[in-house]
Amino acid sequence: MTSRPHSHDLYAVDQVRALDRRAIEVLGIPGIELMQRAAAAAFACLRRRWPSARRIGVYCGPGNNGGDGFLLAAMALDAGCQVDLYALSNEARGDAASARQRFEQAGGELRLWCGSMALSDVDVHVDALYGTGLTRPPEEQAAHLITQLNASGKPVLALDVPSGLNADTGQCPGMAIDAAATITFIAAKRGLYTGRAPGQVGDVELDLLDLPETLWEGMSPDSTLLEVQTLPPRSRHAHKGDNGHVLAIGGDSGTAGAIRLCGEAALRAGAGLVSVATRESNLVALNSARPELMAHAVDGPQALEPLLDRADVLAVGPGLGQAAWGHALWLTALEAGKPLVLDADGLNLLAREPRLFSQAAVLTPHPGEAARLLQCAIPDIEADRFAAARALAVRYHAIVVLKGAGSLVADPDGRLAVCPWGNPGMAAGGMGDLLTGVIAALLGQGCTPWQAACLGVGLHARAGDAAAASGERGLMASDLLLPLRRLLNGLDA
């Protein structure tokens, strides 16, 4: 994405349709003119990304997305490229019919796609099959074409949205284009950044089609993309008491690593003090590996209470377990009324004993934990991650981080942010423990729960990307700690 106006604003599909109508009906810009601008932006993108491409395959559906493809193909012919254009049907509606006519007037030849065909040997494919309105699996002929395009070994440029991807939710009900790049028009669609989408869209570009700023007046975005942020420099006379005392609670027998990762992440994220309440059997390992953590043996609520009194923020759940020991500490921690971050078994216990939070609280579920918290199935969560995150925030009156590809941050008032960073290498044990510690440390340094969640999610994902420079496979949670520190201080990782 660029840094131009609206580049971090995300819109739902209904909002994008309303913007299209406003451009035509209120601003008086003909639909075919908008289509011409979209095609010109897409062809410029193609030439910029693949400057040596001389033979282009274009695949058009019957709607306006296909119209964009017809006009791009006409421009490519005018530029001296060879164009192989295939249409899903002879049907072309409205402005798309005019676009098809322009392609044919430019000397283009249209061929109908059938399942027995083989793809032409081209340099770049252009996907103009379906636009933002598709919410069902592609039809059989289109699905066969998508399969061939994905297997061709040649890059695909998707117009507006990769065909088969739900532009509202980021899910794929059937086959979907694996694009090398997607150029999207007028407004960034929220579904391009979460769920299955990060694996389908490639690099995303937004083109506003030279529309005036008045087009967006009065229409607030559905959500926003997180932007790069850090904390301001500390005062030269700062001391550890100014930077928050985090108490990390967890680490049942055999899970010392989870609570250590949480505590160490809190230290690396700038907490002035970090205490750990854990099993006695974990003390030697924690003290040996990270002496800066103040590890305490806690056998029950009575031993936990003096630690709670001294803490500013609680990080509850990593390695906690759901047995009697973990449940007792969880209940005591929540009743202390301190600001907290709840993860892992802290969330599983919350699903068993729901409550509305009165203190500042950040919940960080993955889809499985989110499903338990909403008493539904994981596919229900993934079907609409935006709705799920917002429902969780309302149900528990907390800031919610719904983790996964394109993590979401939601608050009870409906505000929502989407994380554009992160990589598949982060699908490894311990990553959530780190995030819990990071957010808790930011709370302790004076961030609001919303600020701490947004900044923490962004730093965590960006540190993961920095650590993955050596390869995604084999990435460990602890690999993020050093880049995390550099990014928090505004340095290159």
Could you walk me through the main structural features you see in this protein, from its secondary elements to its overall organization?
With 493 residues, the chain is α/β, with parallel strands linked by helices. It folds into 2 domains: 9-224, 3-Layer(aba) Sandwich (Rossmann fold), CATH 3.40.50; 240-488, Ribokinase (UDP-N-acetylmuramoyl-L-alanine:D-glutamate ligase), CATH 3.40.1190.20. Helix content is 38%, strand content 16%. It contains 16 helices and 19 strands. The protein has helices at 13-25, 31-49, 64-78, 95-105, 140-151, 256-268, 283-289, 301-310, 324-335, 345-352, 367-374, 378-383, 385-396, 431-444, 449-467, 481-488; strands spanning 9-11, 55-60, 82-87, 110-112, 124-128, 156-159, 181-185, 188-189, 203-207, 223-225, 245-249, 273-278, 294-297, 313-316, 340-342, 361-363, 399-402, 408-410, 416-418. A 12-stranded mixed beta sheet has the order 8-1-10-19-18-17-16-15-14-11-12-13, with helices on both faces. The chain has a 7-stranded parallel beta sheet with strand order 4-3-2-5-6-7-9, with helices on one face. Helix 5 (140-151) links the parallel strand 5 (124-128) and strand 6 (156-159). Helix 2 (31-49) crosses helix 3, helix 2 (31-49) packs across helix 4 (95-105) and helix 10 (345-352) packs parallel to helix 11 (367-374). The chain is elongated and about 85 Å long. The two termini are 20 Å apart. The model has no long low-confidence stretch (mean pLDDT 95).
